[in-house]
Design a protein that fits this description.
Layout (H helix, E strand, L loop, with lengths): L11 E5 L9 E6 L13 H13 L6 E6 L2 E5 L1
Antiparallel strand pairs: 1-4, 2-3
């Protein structure tokens, strides 16, 4: 039995997906102290409100990280 492979060099382009049917950007916030996080949302305001609620319940939690999911598209040139 023999194996045959063809390997070629190809240029690929990767960029944010501009298509109208692309998934939307989503945002979430995560507490850097305890790791608890907000639900994902298509708007950034919901995460900010979650932070205010979280810090109210946990006054010593001052550091947060925003997590952004952004769709990308790759194709061969």
């Amino acid at each position: 039995m023999s194996t045959r492979a063809v390997i070629t060099h190809a240029d690929w382009i990767v960029r944010p997906d501009p298509e109208p049917d692309a998934k939307p950007h989503t945002y979430a916030q995560e507490c850097d102290v305890c790791g608890e996080g907000s639900p994902r949302s298509t708007g950034q305001e919901a995460g900010s409100l979650w932070i205010l609620e979280h810090v109210r319940a946990n006054p010593s939690h001052h550091s947060y990280t925003q997590i952004v999911k952004r769709p990308f598209h790759a194709w061969m040139r």
